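Subgroup meeting minutes
Present: P.N., E.W., G.H.
Scribe: E.W.

1. P.N. recapped why we're keeping a running log of single-chain structure predictions: easier to compare across weeks, and new members can see raw inputs and outputs side by side.
2. G.H. added today's entry (98 aa).
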Amino acid sequence: MGMDGFWNLVIPTPMGDHDGTLTCQVDGATLTGTMTGPAGAMEIQNGTVEGDRATFTGEITSPMAMSFKVTVTATGDALDGEADMGSFGTSGFSGTRA
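Output recorded in log:
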């Protein structure tokens, strides 16, 4: 089943856990879709899939401009990920298939 589909995310922050979503469309080794979280929504860019592991980048402009490098691994109906936000640090997140 891999990455394809809809995921409900839990994103821990210093102000408590926040909900998010990840929508993934896999076509061969290419990943497209969107990710939403406390900082807003972003389109998946440069998405690649290898087995149950995917990487992608994304950008938001509000409430401030930020770039993300995301790595996610799907194991059955569970998802674990990490978002590198450059000078803002790295944040982990988890999810379940919706």
